[in-house]
Amino acid sequence: MAELKRAEERSDRPLTGWKAIAGYFGKDERTVRRWAATRDLPVHRVKGDRSGPVFAYVSELNHWLVSHGQMVDGHGQMVDGPQMTPPRGRVPGRWLAILGVMGLVLGLAGTVGWRMAPREARGPQVVEVSSAESLYLDGRYHLEKRSAEGIGRALGLFAQAIAADPGFTGAYVGLADAYNLVSQYTPSSAEESYPKARAAAERALTLDPGNGPAHAALGFNAFYHGRDPQAAMALLQKSIALDPDNARAHHWYALIAMQNRDFTVALDAIAMAQRLDPHAPSILANKGLILFHAGQTQAAIDILRPLAQSEPTLLSPPAYLATIYLATGRSSDFLREYRRAAEISGSRPALAIANAAEAGFRAGGRRDMLRRMFAEQQRQHAQDNEPAFKLALTAAMLGEDVAALGLLEQSMLRREQDILGIRLEPALFGLHADERYKSLVAAAGFSPVD
Predict the structure, then answer these.
(1) For the chain, which domains are there?
(2) Residue 71 pLDDT > 70, yes or no?
(3) Which pTM was predicted?
(4) In this structure, are residues 382 and 396 in contact, taking their beta carbons and an 8 Å threshold?
């Protein structure tokens, strides 16, 4: 009975997202989406949320396999279902195994109370996938890669989805999210991409004024482009009220709370985002960053190092590790991760800074590393390739507080996105008592520094 109970629990566990469902079958995502559209694969979505994550129950997937003449073997791989008449002579072990699996699945289906009820009684299912929605879903997949190539593909797919169905709200939200992120992962101008993101989100709200994900996209835009933390938090709170199951809204909310050093709120929000979308590497990476700034350095490293290995093209894990190692004095580790991030991004200015830092460290340790970094950052800044805010951090680590404050003021005047880290960055802790610094924090829209 105990074994049967455990088997029932395994069969009733949910799989969240197309990736997890596809992995259960050992297939790619496009295949299982096609099955959902053409072969009645029992995949569900939260009612009323066309842009939210899909999920499926293992018991229902197993029943679907049996009804379509296929099974999942003991290793989780699909096998053809048995013919009605077994081979003559001795029954081979494989045949017995297949019959045993079929019996277990059918028995569990009866045990857990499966009913051949009307479709409506089993919850909302994804039965038809329009061409616009299919393009949108493909776009979401590529956007989550958080790479220049992935975001470029996502932009194209969302545009195609809009062309296929100009009334499909989700495609406009996807377009807004992609334009919100593009300047962070490509050389694209933030001053060009953010207005496009805002326009796409507003178009989505014109089609559906109560769309939660569209409000989340506007909240992200209000923070990173509008530099208005309070307005951003209000929009994200509204988004969550409209759609509590939208992982992106909780994710963005966590990042803004982190920048304001409200780590209790940030950790709660990122935990909710991860619960809603447990397969998103970007959420896991930002969980690591929040943990670091909350004082849990080793916990952050324990998340980010394996993630960097499993997602070798994702920029955030090595970039965050470089931040952690620089702040904690682990210069050799910093140099390794900084170079890795520069190589992933393909940024020539970042690679030049990496070269200068490495040469400085070889010549005279951490102090010379910072000096040569700063000199190269100044050269890149003169060519508009490096934000003043990053120079301010290096100047502060060198103990040049006056220079750091001047660079922070310059960053504020230039409306650099990086200035949003002014209250968060450990390199600036030595400036917290300075009145010029306090004025800059207030001008950035954050709570006063303790």
Answers:
(1) 2-85+95-114 (no CATH), 130-208 (1.25.40.10)
(2) no
(3) 0.71
(4) no
